[in-house]
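In the design runs reported in the main text, the only information available to the sequence generator was the tokenized backbone. The following block is the verbatim input for one such run; it is reproduced so that readers can re-run the procedure and compare outputs position by position.
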């Protein structure tokens, strides 16, 4: 799905099967999937997205053999004619006043009675634009309404889940966050993400600041009800729309010495219900990898971003989707390292100096092919036998090997080499007996010897609602049927498959999020 003018992907557009209250949300590349059975039923999909005209497409007109391209036209706003009286002039609300009205109307616009929603959950990482470690699930979320505390009252049934093995699995990137670097580590630079007991869906839910309006959700929104207005500066941007609903667009921001934060609220001009909230926090000390300004006008390194979307159903606002992603650094071990060392001895003439014939030599084998231009002299290498340094006087380099020739001109050096040869023949060498140091080396790809490197990944957690069930009740299920919110989703959780499990599907993305 593309913008008809720019041909850019339309991310997180709502795709609903008309008259069935079922649907999905488009992926990062604008793609989405609909089960073929709905094509056979002759159904129509309704596609809507913030700032675009809503369109309807007959599923039967879409091909099942090739990727279909749908283009959405940007919405055009036509202001209605107004009559202005000289004596009565309508007061224009300031941005902060609009937000305050939205906060005051939360319990009027959002459900306060129990309900449930069935949706598609996924978590994954993006390595550049490749999806890595994709996990997927179909969940039914039983919410007790906005007067109840979400974290303590909401229950979740897992209809189905899988660790998608069609996508690359990266063992290091799957590790828990480690905020004190010890060897291999996965960290959030300039930030901290609470594990909330290890449950991915719990982490995602806490970052819904609208639903959790009374509790501390995340920096720097904190408590949406009381802190948002105090912590940010507000301004108004051009109006937007969602379907037929005209929306205020309110931008808000906060700047600190180390962090900056930018957000937008899309608020109904009719009843002040919030249709969408975007929020992003940046590290002001670092520039992003592209050096280009993003949609918030920032060139700084993002730390996390959360987008929450609601839509009106049954005269109340219900969750449409939530997407939370944070950037983390993965410390990767050196690509160029010394794998092992051999001591060879032979009476063949190998190297001739002015004083002797060499009968022993060391072979150093490295993990990668070496750039010979960086292997200049023996001073780059140090070999110690039982803590005593062995003098070197010559070398050869070939592919991933370096041959080092020790000096054999002094009685002490010769005795060390003979003892070393005896141990190598009879006991074998180990790091306690022989240690080797190498410095200022590079491989053919430019990796430096012993150098740890970092790589930025994006960690995503997302939930896309497929169906709303008003008046959701949980009495039909024993407590053991529900997900343990303190335990990872994909490790030994109970599975409950309803009879209509076929109505829901996993909107698995393409392996690469290409534009």
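Verbatim output:
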């Amino acid at each position: 799905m593309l913008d008809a003018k720019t041909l850019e992907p339309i991310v997180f557009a709502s795709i609903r099967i008309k008259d069935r209250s079922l649907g999905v949300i488009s992926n990062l590349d604008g793609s989405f999937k609909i089960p073929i059975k709905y094509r056979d039923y002759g159904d129509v999909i309704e596609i809507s997205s913030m700032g675009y005209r809503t369109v309807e497409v007959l599923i039967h007109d879409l091909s099942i053999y090739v990727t279909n391209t749908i283009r959405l036209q940007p919405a055009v706003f036509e202001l209605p004619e107004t009559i202005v009286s000289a004596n009565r002039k309508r007061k224009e609300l300031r941005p902060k006043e609009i937000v305050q009205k939205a906060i005051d109307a939360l319990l009027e616009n959002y459900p306060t009675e129990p309900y449930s929603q069935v949706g598609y959950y996924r978590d994954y990482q993006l390595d550049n634009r490749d999806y890595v470690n994709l996990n997927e699930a179909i969940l039914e979320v039983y919410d007790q309404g906005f007067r109840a505390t979400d974290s303590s009252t909401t229950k979740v049934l897992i209809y189905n889940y899988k660790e998608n093995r069609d996508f690359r699995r990266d063992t290091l990137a799957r590790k828990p966050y480690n905020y004190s670097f010890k060897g291999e580590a996965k960290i959030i630079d300039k930030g901290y993400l609470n594990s909330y007991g290890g449950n991915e869906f719990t982490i995602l839910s806490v970052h819904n600041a609208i639903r959790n309006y009374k509790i501390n959700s995340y920096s720097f929104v904190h408590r949406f009800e009381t802190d948002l207005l105090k912590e940010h500066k507000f301004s108004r941007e051009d109006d937007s729309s969602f379907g037929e609903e005209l929306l205020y667009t309110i931008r808000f921001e906060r700047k600190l010495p180390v962090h900056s934060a930018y957000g937008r609220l899309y608020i109904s001009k009719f009843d002040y219900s919030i249709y969408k909230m975007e929020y992003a926090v940046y590290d002001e000390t670092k520039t992003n990898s592209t050096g280009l300004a993003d949609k918030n006008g920032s060139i700084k390194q993002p730390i996390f971003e959360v987008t929450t979307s609601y839509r009106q159903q049954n005269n109340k606002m219900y969750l449409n989707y939530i997407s939370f992603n944070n950037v983390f650094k993965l410390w990767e071990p050196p690509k160029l390292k010394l794998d092992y060392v051999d001591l060879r001895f032979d009476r063949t003439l190998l190297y001739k100096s002015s004083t002797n014939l060499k009968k022993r030599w060391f072979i150093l084998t490295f993990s990668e092919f070496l750039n010979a231009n960086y292997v200049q002299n023996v001073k780059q290498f140090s070999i110690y036998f039982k803590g005593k340094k062995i003098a070197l006087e010559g070398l050869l380099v070939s592919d991933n090997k370096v041959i080092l020739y020790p000096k054999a001109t002094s009685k002490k050096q010769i005795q060390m080499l003979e003892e070393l040869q005896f141990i190598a023949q009879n006991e074998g060498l180990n790091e306690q007996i022989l240690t080797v140091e190498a410095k200022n080396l590079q491989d053919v790809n430019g990796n430096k010897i012993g150098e740890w490197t970092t790589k930025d990944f994006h960690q995503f957690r997302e939930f896309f609602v497929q169906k709303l069930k008003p008046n959701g009740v949980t009495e039909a299920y024993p407590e053991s049927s529900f997900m343990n919110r303190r335990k990872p989703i994909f490790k030994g959780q109970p599975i409950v498959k309803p009879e209509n499990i076929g109505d829901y599907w996993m909107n698995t993305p393409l392996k690469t999020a290409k534009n």
